[in-house]
């Protein structure tokens, strides 16, 4: 039976970095729902064209379209032993559909690691980014500050703060994520699959903790 791991974490938790590290260690493909959407839209697949019809109107893509894209990706040969899921499922309804999908392909969700980081730490990580106007080089006022405030080290152009990097916007993004994801967290907690890992540690330590937690689930 193939195993599937669903990785959860708010913006700023380092989910993308951890997904790449964990998938490499476990030798499971990293399946990002965002990548799947972009690929379908770029290649103008039948599903991508249907999804684009909703996106262009500012509407949410229906679950059945999203699930069909995921199903098509999981049917490829690199997923025969399972995968690490990133960005899907997002709701209990999608989680139930995912379980039904996995039954058809002899798969099962074995663990749901959740990178838990307090809101103040997330805001600190996300709201200090400044971007170079000329080439898009990114600096952080705390973790990677420029030598001269407001000036790009690389090409000397002005640094500015994008709207989605401003503190109030960041706080709103985090609140929306937590509100939308809480039902999914509870869904997997009730099924005994959720594993909470402290995301405030170093990148390396979080990777170690995630892998350890997944292995414990595998043995339970």
Give the key terms.
220 residues; alpha/beta; five-stranded parallel sheet; 48% helix
Detailed description of the structure:
This protein has eight helices and eight strands, in the order βαβαααβαβαβββαβα. The protein has helices at 15-26, 33-42, 46-55, 63-74, 92-104, 119-126, 167-190, 203-219, and strands at residues 2-7, 30-32, 82-86, 107-116, 129-132, 138-140, 159-160, 194-198. 48% of the residues lie in helices and 17% in strands. The longest helix is centred in the last third of the chain and has 24 residues, at 167-190. It has a five-stranded parallel β-sheet with strand order 2-3-1-4-8, with helices on both faces. The chain has a three-stranded antiparallel β-sheet with strand order 6-5-7, with no helix packed on it. The protein is of the alpha/beta class. The chain starts with a strand and ends with a helix.
What's the topology here?
Elements: E1 2-7, H1 15-26, E2 30-32, H2 33-42, H3 46-55, H4 63-74, E3 82-86, H5 92-104, E4 107-116, H6 119-126, E5 129-132, E6 138-140, E7 159-160, H7 167-190, E8 194-198, H8 203-219
Parallel strand pairs: 1-3, 1-4, 2-3, 4-8
Antiparallel strand pairs: 5-6, 5-7
Helix pairs in contact: 1-8, 2-3, 2-4, 3-4, 6-7
Determine the structural class based on helices, strands and strand pairing.
alpha/beta
Secondary structure: number of strands: 8
- The amount of helix comes to 40-55%
Hey, roughly how much beta strand do the residues contain?
A: 15-25%
Biggest sheet descriptor: 5 strands, parallel
Radius of gyration: 19 Å
What integer is the average pLDDT?
92
Query: What distance separates the N and C termini?
Result: 16 Å
User: Which parts are unreliable, with pLDDT below 50 for 5 consecutive residues or more?
Assistant: none
Query: H/E order of the elements?
Result: EHEHHHEHEHEEEHEH
DSSP helical segment count: 8
Strand order of the largest sheet: 2-3-1-4-8
Give the overall form: globular
